[in-house]
């Protein structure tokens, strides 16, 4: 602590900075161990067409710590993974688990795609791209059943080998989705170069639909651009019927959010899926018509 007020402003902050750094290092170590011990798991959140048909799912990494399984939020550990290099083994782990789920779905005659979140920086890594293609081949899963979600905010500094590597994956049959659309910096000309097939409208624009004039205009504009560029649109964070109604009325292709389904562990998601398919009841009655 500073001995003298005023003079010691820097010294005053020093211990706090130290604490933050120490906490970060601890989190990184714990995450490294969790990856090594295969303690990460995946949850899946279903996506539905506005008429209520189950059309896909998003894979979300989960980290439950200790005997009580206290969850650590991906919002807290994904940035640490990204800045420490742990994102590479983490992504391969998540992908491997996601492909195992797709394979089990295929064995039950269910062919719907799963989306996996993919940090943009990974597209610079040739070795990882090869790893993705190898995992697909090993799993015997058609690439068409895998969508990679890329966050828009990371797109600003795109290098040309990023586009080349994305091109390789696209030629192999994978699809790309631009996550959190509207919050980042990507310009519209980019959308075509990126080999995208889908946009996800960020939850912040969905939140106060249909009451908020600005968000109504933004969402309608996104839907109109997407239609002209022949991109599919998924709305994320749909929590109310009035949001779903607005999105459906304006041609949004898929809805995802707590209104329809909360992310659940892959095992129970699969069981639920199998039940609803065998009873032909995978429909959600969200369409007012
Ligand atoms: P995201 O990709 O935009 O995922 C959607 C997030 O919103 C998820 O949070 C999901 O649980 C939450 N969500 C879905 N519907 C609703 C809703 O109706 N209301 C509210 N309030 N929230 C909803 P989660 O699982 O905490 O993940 C946060 C972020 O962490 C993700 O945002 C994604 O950017 C990142 N992430 C998650 N899993 C992975 C992963 O395996 N790899 C990478 N690189 N990032 C991941
Ligand atoms: Mg996502
Ligand atoms: Mg998102
Ligand atoms: Mg989001």
UniProtKB/TrEMBL annotation:
Residues 24-277 form the EAL domain. This is EAL domain-containing protein. The chain holds residues 419 to 707 of 711 of the full protein. It comes from the Bacteria.
